[in-house]
Design brief:
The chain has 221 residues and is mainly alpha-helical. It has one domain. The protein is 54% helix and 11% strand. The chain contains 8 helices and 5 strands, in the order ββααβββαααααα. It has a 3-stranded mixed sheet. Helix 3 runs antiparallel to helix 6 and helix 4 crosses helix 5.
Length: 221
Amino acid sequence: MRHYPEHLLLPHKAARWRGDYYTFSPAAAHLLSLVSGVERDKIERAKIYGRSIRRPFPWYGRKSYGGITMPAGDGYAITFTGNLFDPDRLGRNYYAWLNIASHEVGHINHIDESNRAADAKYRKLLEAALYSSVPVIFPRSVYRLGAYFAKFAQSYIASGGHDASPLEAQAERGAVVFGDLYKFVSRRYGAGSLTALLRSDKTDEYKISLIDKWWKDYHSA
């Protein structure tokens, strides 16, 4: 199992049919929570995958990278392009990782919103099924996935495409804040200090305490 970037992700073994996955380290999840406004525990619960035959999306050119965030049962699944796991390409580029991740975790809030709508529909269908001789009820996860796809499809159509979607703009706000924070920390504490901290062998507790200090300084500047 590839493990790059090794200080941002924690590897997990899963049943073969489910596929191995990663989760964000506590320090990475904490930083992503600060810049995106998404609760840290939700980010820590998100399962991270590399694109594969089982998970064929997202599609990007060889020189590009990206991710896609989807509902997964009661949690979240984020699939990133394979080059982000390649130590000879982007696997050691912590800025690239945190830049795209700070966008993707923003979609977690969108999943929570669409899940609430899907769950309300599911409850109504269950109630109606009590009075039907031939009830047709799919698993709740099917309705959640459908509601999420519909939410984004409507947004893309109404706004004229992916990049113009208000949903994507909301998620991109996390990447913008991350970029601003990175530049601020680099100016005040030395170039690349933020990614150097996360790449280091310091404890997560130490990293989080320093990130909190820098975050406070950033907002006080």
